[in-house]
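hey so i finally got around to running the thing on that chain from the lab meeting. sorry it took forever, my laptop kept dying and i had to restart like 3 times. anyway pasting the input first so we r on the same page abt which one it is
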Amino acid sequence: MKLTECSFYRSGKDVNFSVFSDDVCRVHHMRSISLPLGGDVDVYDVEPGQKSHWIVIRQTEDGKHDLRWFVRKGRDFEEDRGAVPQALKREVGERFPQLIPRHPALVA
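ok and heres what got predicted. didnt touch it at all, straight out
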């Protein structure tokens, strides 16, 4: 899936997301959805920086984190749903150590 086809959601502490990249990205509020039982869900899209090569979105729902990886392919950012290359994980881990958990045996 392309980044331009994705929407990201925020609703208080229960549902939110964070954007990590190798260049500054813009997050645009698209709309709010009112829930029948009260509260709102805000819908956002992410615009990559001109020099971005990759974007990692950390989605949080009910305290559980999920990472979505997007890699530049020409003008588009394609989601990498397969095995993310180790070199990319290493680069992301160096910039944002909180995203890539280290195996306890490997920590000195």
